[in-house]
Amino acid sequence: MFGLHYKLERNTIGFALAVIVVAGIGGFVEIAPLFTVDETVEEAPNMRVYTPLELAGRNIYIREGCYACHSQMIRTLRDEVERYGPYSLAVESKYDHPMLWGSKRTGPDIARLGGKYSDQWHVAHLNNPRDVVPESIMPSYAYLGRAELKANDLGLHLKAMRAVGVPYTDEMIANATSDTYGQAMPDSTFSSGLSKRYGDKTTVRDFDGVAGQVTEMDALVAYLQILGKLTDAAYSPVAKAED
Ligand code: HEC
């Protein structure tokens, strides 16, 4: 074995070829799983896309670095499934660009956070986590409630998402800004076409509890409330049977 290596090292071309073969094996092992991607990624025909308000909230989540402390990926381990709910499916991240699976949990996983708490809880928690969880070490984000949401460029953002495969329609793109206001201002005229475009289950609410203005807090809470709820594929009988 070492004799062969000794000889190979003295033969430049032979050694170069050997390096290519060995690196090729490594490359193949990395690429091979992609050949089965069609069978691995589940179908979720009823999955809806993020509304512009939720997408804006997602951008704030990224901007504030929440992913540094929170993962959005429940592993198939029993303790995780018991704590957080059904494990995450690949299809659930289908419209996430970039994905936010995360690699560190200073705080809990939030892949199935949607509906766990009320909007008021989230606002109180983001304003000052210690008010609702006395031992929390999470930073406070009270300024989000004072920052008016910038919504005039969200149509372009939807367009960019469409370029990477998210099925936003021309109508969704054209109405992005008014849909953003509509979702956070239930009494306004803006909200009329929202459920037609994004489905009946789209929540139209004043997420931050302050009427008359749409803030970054509205967007972030709307996003937190939709986590794990774009599709119910993880609760389908097939996924259950595998549990
Ligand atoms: C320095 C780490 C850290 C950062 C950054 C952070 N969090 Fe947290 N988060 C925590 C910890 C620790 C907890 C658990 C204690 C608590 O509930 O406050 C937590 C809890 C939460 C919970 C409650 C989860 C549950 O299931 O009970 C939510 C929601 C949350 N964080 C959202 C956010 C959002 C949104 C951001 C970004 C704006 C953020 N966090 C940034 C550490 C962090």
UniProtKB/TrEMBL annotation:
Residues 52-184 form the Cytochrome c domain. Its EC number is 1.9.3.1. It comes from the Bacteria. The chain crosses the membrane at residues 12-35. Pfam families: FixO (PF02433). GO terms for molecular function: electron transfer activity; heme binding; metal ion binding; oxidoreductase activity. The keyword Heme applies. This is Cytochrome-c oxidase, cbb3-type subunit II. It comes from Microvirga brassicacearum. The lineage of its organism: Bacteria, Pseudomonadati, Pseudomonadota, Alphaproteobacteria, Hyphomicrobiales.
